[in-house]
Amino acid sequence: MSRAMRTLLTERLRLVPVTPHNAAVLWQMLRQPGLREFQDLPEVDLVQFGRMVASRPQRLEPGAWGRFEWLIGFEGIGEPVGWGSLRVGERVSSSAEIGYSIVQSYRGRGIATEAVCALAAEAFSRLHLRKLRAYCVPENAASRTVLARAGFEEDGVLPHGATVGGHPVDVLGYVLNREAWELRRPA
Ligand SMILES: CC(C)(COP(=O)(O)OP(=O)(O)OC[C@H]1O[C@@H](n2cnc3c(N)ncnc32)[C@H](O)[C@@H]1OP(=O)(O)O)[C@@H](O)C(=O)NCCC(=O)NCCS
Q: Hey, what CATH topology would domain 8-134 get?
């Protein structure tokens, strides 16, 4: 079976792998307002961004490490409305970190929750993970709701775990263990 990153389908959504072919779509989205309040995003031009994407791993399989990203859109229509990511560290292959954002005009419709559940399923089924982690600033109530709905549990504060507006900030850690995910998974 091919271990290439694949398109993920949910009830309403289509998550398409980010490749050099569609990197410009994500780059455009990263420039939209309302995405940087709780997170710093890369300030790179399109050529640099394309190079970053081209250097990422393409196969989502045990042992692969780096950043894997998907564009989140509705099945069958137009422009994507957000993106989600999985990041696997070079040395720690038993856990990965999930990230996500939705453009302002599409928030509050459960899109991030649906996408996070799909990404968690893909991560646990493709990789030998014991846990999936997520981090967000404590003020990001919407993101905390998403993580709680997807089954993540709070796992303490990571001091200076991120930079927002160029400044180090403390972040709340969240964790979804494989056992907890398997219990929630529909049969
Ligand atoms: C966080 C984010 C991805 C959520 O996306 P979304 O598609 O709106 O999420 P969902 O609709 O699945 O769930 C969000 C829930 O939080 C609630 N919510 C939204 N803003 C809120 C706020 N300020 N306070 C409390 N709850 C809030 C929503 O009402 C919704 O709950 P509901 O379904 O009961 O109404 C989106 O707000 C976003 O992209 N924010 C900017 C980037 C970001 O913070 N990314 C995550 C970094 S950790």
A: Aminopeptidase (3.40.630)
